[in-house]
Amino acid sequence: MAGRLPSSGAISIGQINAKEGYSPTQTVSMNNTLIRAFCGARANNSQISLGSARGKQVTVIGNLSTSNYASSVSMPAVSLYSYFSASQAVTGYPLYTTVNVNVPPTWWANGTNNPRNMSSTLGYGNSRTGGGTGGRKNFYSVQTYSGTTIYGSGYYSGKSTGNRNGQVTLQYISLVKPNPAGRGS
Q1: Where are the chain's structural domains?
Q2: What's the 3-state SS for the chain?
Q3: What is the pLDDT of residues 131-140, one digit of tens each?
């Protein structure tokens, strides 16, 4: 149930828990990573207020950035500030993302060449490559988290085929947890 908290009114720990799929009655400390990420005070033992969480989110799910279809593609860069406040998007903390690969139906119609389940997850600022499957036709995804920007690419690798095209889509960003489904929406 990812999404933003209300931008006005009282905020409770139960509301924060519920937004991330936890029990609203679960007891957590104000020093909890989830609470701190929502409030934008990521450093342990720094002063925080639940009021600071108003209007904020820590997980975003959807088609956040999509490349075109080609044998070598670039996914448009995404600024974390598009989804999170500056105090939430500080460097030095893990960032969890999922990039999915889509290929033309002609690749996977026979059931042996479907690499659409490829995803990779970033932690601290770095770059990851999603591994290839799909018989003799592989399309890889690369995603990079640098500063406050996520960008990515995809490329074809494999035996000759009449259609080497693929597409990469950023579908999940979270400040607090890996994608529980392992892929985007």
Answers
A1: 13-53, 59-174
A2: CCCCCCCCCCCCHHHHHHHCCCCCCCCCCCCCHHHHHHHCCCCCCCCCCHHHHCCCCCEEEEEEEECCCECEEEEEEEEHHHCCCCCCCCCCCCCEEEEEEECCHHHHCCCCCCCCCCCCCCCCCCEEEECCCCCCEEEEEEEEEECCEEEEEEEEEECCCCCCCEEEEEEEEECCCCCCCCCCC
A3: 555 555 566 7
